[in-house]
Structures are given as structure tokens and as C-alpha cells.
């Protein structure tokens, strides 16, 4: 008890004189350069712990360092632990304040170092505007720079999380996992299974390790896709004029087949004026124009339209997007298509296909508010 009282008195004296070079009774100088770094856990209110660092002493009498802390400015200082290195990791909920002393072999300690105070005001705002793009076995997401711009000097990096998503009930699974970290306002998660919906969110980390609240989650369901597929009109090369988003018997995606193959979703025909048209073939397949103007990329196709599908032929026009709906034994599936080039002799396009039955996600879901049940 007497040692704790003396330590508290020494800290008060150090604070009063404002000197980092105060020398204690044993002539051992106190440690200098003490800093702290919180260890983010995914729960902004409960960090994994705190890491303290300071400048190592050059005094040969020093054998170790002693760390003291207190939970509030009115509490007595308590001995937290000892270490032989110039750093200390304190796991669990951090205390409010910490200081360090240098200790000699005889057990005597230096005066306290300067005190560090964990400052909650350094917490950044939650990132805004999170949106996700579904890719082939991957997802790309981006968000606003509002958290970084709120305190550019205090910003360190972002943490990105994901979990499974219950599409039917609009609920994120509570078992979140850390996907990774980034310093930019975008991130790609790869190696994800196609056809499995996922929730994604992000937090901002300050220079001292404070984690912001999470962004409102966004969702994406990775799906199959391919670029620059070449097909020919049935009038020229009938064996290369049919396209199937999925062939159940072979589990093949994006198959170019003869126009007469029973698995074909659509075939390409040429009209007398030289234009090429996509004709739905298989029973249960229909097509809708995605928008009345060209789209920039295949990933511009987000949710499949809820209406407007037809079994009639539709002209293939460069830059335009199309959505096919096709019924298989497990239910309704959607495929996206963007035409990149058309001549009277061939058609080139990009395509995407959603393996999750009934799931209309072909690229992007706008941010919404599924339940975030718990931190990872």
C-alpha cells in the first residue's frame, strides 16, 4: 500500500513539474516516449487490449520495467505487470491511464514516466455509403471517405468484415469474420463460393487504435461470369450459335452449343438487314432489356428486373445490358449480359449468372440495414 501511495505521489510531482527528465532517488532516469496503441477487436466498445511502447533505457542497472495503470483519474495506481522489453501488451478492456518505471536488480524503481491517457475522442465516425459488387468467386466493396476526412492526421486504416446473409429474412449471421485491412476506400474479397449470399461491413481505425462503429452493412452474392464471349449467327455457324448459362448434366457454366441443343437458353439469329438478335429457346427462358440506355460495364447490372420479360427475340445492341430469367429443376435463376461488339457476322458479350435460386443479385445491392447481431 505504501508503495502505491508513493508512486501516485511521484506521478503528481512529475505532472506538476512537467519534466520528462525527472530522476528518482536511485538516480535511474524514468522511461521516456511512452505511447499506447489499442488492439481492435471488431467491437468498438471493447478493444482486444492495449499495447504500450516506450524508449529503451541505456542505464546498465535497469533489469526490467514495471507497468502501472488505473481505471479512472480518481482511482489509486495499481501494478499491472513487468517486462524486460520496452513494450507491454495488456489484453482485455484497457484502463484509462498508464505509466512505466525502470527497475534495478535490487528492486528499486525510477520515478514514473509521463502518463498516457486513452482518449475516446479520437474515435472516428463510421464509414458511410458502403456498397458491394458481386464478382466471380469474389466481391468488391467501396465506401465514402467521410471517416478518413473527418481527421486525416488521426486516420490509420480500415477493417473489413463479412458473414453469411439470410436473403429471405434480410438478416446478417452474427458470426462475423475479418476479411482484411486497407487504407483505401475499396476492398476485394476473393475465394468466396459462388451463389452464397454474404453481408459486408467496414470500420475505421484511428492512429491510436480506436475502432469506429461499423458501416451499415451491404450484401452481395458472388456469381459466375466471363468476358468477351464470341458467338456467331445460326445462319453462318449453327454449332456455335447457342448459349447456355448453365448445363445441369455437365455442371458447365457459359457453354456455347449448337442452336438445337436442349440446354440452350438463347440462340443468335441474323435478320435480313444484317442485325443480330438473341432468341430465347429453352422452355422457361425469357429476356428483358436492363435499361433504355447503354451501360458502362457488366457490373452495372444490379438487381434483375421484376417484370418486362419476353420469350420473343431481342436485338443485340453494343453497350446495352440484358437480363435472362431461366427456370431449372431447383427454381428460377437470373443471368446478366452486356453486348460489347456486334457485326453481321459475330456477337461479343460479357455475361454473369446467379447460381442461388430466386436470388436477383447480379452485381450490386444498395446499402440497407440488416440486423448486426454481434461483433466478430
Percentage of residues assigned to helices: under 10%
User: Major sheet: size, sense and barrel closure?
Assistant: 5 strands, antiparallel
Shape: rod-shaped
**Number of helix segments?**
2
Mean pLDDT equals 90
Whole-Å distance between the termini?
40 Å
What count of domains describes the coordinates?
Answer: 3
Rg on CA atoms, Å: 31 Å
* Element-by-element helix/strand order: HEEEEEEEEEHEEEEEEEEEEEEEEEEE
Question: Which class best fits the helix and strand makeup?
Answer: mainly beta
Point out poorly predicted stretches: 1-23, 364-369
* SS strand fraction: 35-45%
Number of DSSP-assigned strands: 26
Provide an overview of this structure:
There is one protein chain. With 376 residues, the chain is mainly beta. It has three domains: 2-118, Sandwich (Immunoglobulin-like), CATH 2.60.40; 131-223, Immunoglobulin-like (Sandwich); 224-353. The chain is 6% helix and 42% strand. The chain has two helices and 26 strands. Strands 10, 11, 12, 14 and 15 form a five-stranded antiparallel sheet that branches. Strand 3 and strand 4 form a beta hairpin. The longest helix has 16 residues, at 2-17. The protein is rod-shaped and about 100 Å long. Residues 1-23 and 364-369 have low confidence and may be disordered.
Amino acid at each position: 500500500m505504501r508503495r502505491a501511495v508513493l508512486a501516485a505521489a511521484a506521478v503528481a510531482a512529475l505532472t506538476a513539474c512537467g519534466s520528462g527528465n525527472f530522476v528518482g532517488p536511485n538516480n535511474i532516469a524514468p522511461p521516456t516516449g511512452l505511447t499506447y496503441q489499442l488492439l481492435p477487436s471488431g467491437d468498438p466498445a471493447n478493444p482486444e487490449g492495449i499495447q504500450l511502447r516506450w524508449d529503451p533505457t541505456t542505464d546498465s542497472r535497469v533489469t526490467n520495467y514495471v507497468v502501472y495503470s488505473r481505471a479512472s483519474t480518481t482511482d489509486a495506481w495499481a501494478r499491472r505487470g513487468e517486462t524486460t522489453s520496452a513494450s507491454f501488451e495488456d489484453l482485455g478492456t484497457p484502463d484509462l491511464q498508464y505509466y512505466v518505471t525502470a527497475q534495478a536488480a535490487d528492486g528499486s524503481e525510477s520515478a514514473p514516466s509521463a502518463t498516457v491517457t486513452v482518449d475516446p475522442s479520437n474515435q472516428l465516425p463510421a464509414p458511410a455509403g458502403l456498397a458491394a459488387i458481386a464478382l466471380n468467386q469474389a466481391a468488391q466493396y467501396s465506401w465514402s471517405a467521410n471517416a478518413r476526412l473527418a481527421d486525416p492526421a488521426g486516420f490509420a486504416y480500415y477493417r473489413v468484415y463479412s458473414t453469411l446473409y439470410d436473403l429471405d429474412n434480410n438478416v446478417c449471421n452474427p458470426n462475423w469474420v475479418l476479411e482484411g485491412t486497407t487504407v483505401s476506400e475499396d476492398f476485394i474479397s476473393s475465394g468466396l463460393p459462388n451463389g452464397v449470399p454474404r453481408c459486408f461491413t467496414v470500420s475505421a481505425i484511428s492512429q491510436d487504435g480506436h475502432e469506429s462503429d461499423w458501416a451499415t452493412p451491404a450484401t452481395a452474392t458472388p456469381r459466375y461470369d466471363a468476358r468477351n464471349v464470341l458467338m456467331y449467327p445460326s445462319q453462318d455457324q449453327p454449332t456455335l450459335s447457342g448459349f447456355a448459362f448453365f448445363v445441369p448434366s455437365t455442371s458447365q457454366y457459359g457453354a456455347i452449343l449448337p442452336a438445337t441443343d436442349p440446354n440452350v437458353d438463347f440462340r443468335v439469329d441474323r435478320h435480313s438487314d444484317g442485325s443480330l438478335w438473341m432468341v430465347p429457346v429453352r422452355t422457361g427462358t425469357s429476356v428483358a432489356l436492363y435499361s433504355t440506355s447503354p451501360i458502362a460495364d457488366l457490373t452495372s447490372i444490379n438487381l434483375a428486373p421484376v417484370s418486362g420479360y419476353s420469350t420473343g427475340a431481342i436485338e443485340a445492341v453494343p453497350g446495352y445490358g440484358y437480363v435472362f430469367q431461366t427456370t431449372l429443376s431447383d427454381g428460377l435463376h437470373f443471368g446478366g449480359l452486356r453486348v460489347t461488339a456486334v457485326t453481321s457476322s459475330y456477337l461479343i458479350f460479357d455475361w454473369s449468372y446467379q447460381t442461388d435460386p430466386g436470388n436477383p443479385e447480379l452485381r450490386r445491392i444498395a446499402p440497407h440495414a440488416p440486423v448486426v447481431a454481434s461483433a466478430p
